[in-house]
Specification:
single chain; mainly alpha; 9 helices; globular
Length: 177
């Protein structure tokens, strides 16, 4: 299979996406889509910030495909300018309702590109209530596997500190049954 990591620009990734779609290779399409986010976030040293900009890029790419033109997530960009990436991710996780971007990505099988996924994957960088809310939202929307570092919500009968990452997905799967 083609190594998408050799793609150097979003344009190259979009060309691969177009070709993959034409021949019905959804796996290659998804890999090239994810590569766009990696390329857009590559200039940031902090892994959380890098992933944040990858998530923003993913939403903008979905909007680009939907509207057939470049569409920027201007509200998000303004908010980041005011409060920063970490606060923006925290606010997304704590919102009562999912963001439109979250729903767009999950609907396309890209739940691992959402802000909630980033929050759940970096519990040491966010308030515990944000991590719990993000994890719960991922479970509710059947985004599996959960990030390796996330903790399940409503685990008051379980000592969360004793849960190992493999067990997290098992617990989540049990809740869905």
């Amino acid at each position: 299979m083609f190594d998408v990591n050799t793609l150097k620009t979003p344009t190259e990734a979009r060309n691969l996406m177009d070709n993959a779609q034409k021949i019905g290779r959804h796996d290659v399409y998804q890999a090239a889509f994810r590569r766009i986010g990696q390329l857009q976030g590559k200039d940031h040293d902090d892994p959380v910030v890098r992933q944040f900009w990858g998530a923003v890029s993913a939403v903008e790419e979905v909007l680009r495909q939907k509207h057939k033109k470049v569409v920027k997530a201007n509200y998000t960009r303004r908010k980041v300018a005011e409060v920063g990436e970490i606060k923006c991710l925290t606010d997304w996780a704590l919102k009562k309702k999912e963001t439109v971007g979250f729903l767009m990505l999950v609907d396309r099988g890209l739940g691992d590109q959402t802000g909630e996924f980033i929050v759940a994957n970096h519990p040491d960088r966010f308030p515990p209530e944000a991590v719990a809310a993000a994890t719960q939202r991922l479970i509710e929307h059947h985004v599996f596997p959960l990030p390796r570092n996330s903790i399940p919500l409503h685990s008051h009968h379980i000592n969360s500190a004793q849960i190992i990452p493999r067990q997290i997905n098992e617990l989540a799967a049990q809740r869905l049954c």
